[in-house]
Amino acid sequence: MPRTPREPAPSALPFLPPPGERTLESLRSAARGCTGCPLFEHATQTVFGAGEPAPGGVVFVGEQPGDAEDKEGLPFVGPAGRFLDRALADAGIDRARAYVTNTVKHFKWTPKGKRRIHEKPNTREIAACSPWLSAELEVLKPSVVVCLGATAAQALLGKSFKVTQSRGQLIEGTAIAPTVMATVHPSMILRIDDDTARHAEVARFVDDLKKVAPLVR
Question: Domain 14-215: which topology?
Answer without folding.
Answer: Uracil-DNA Glycosylase, subunit E (3.40.470)
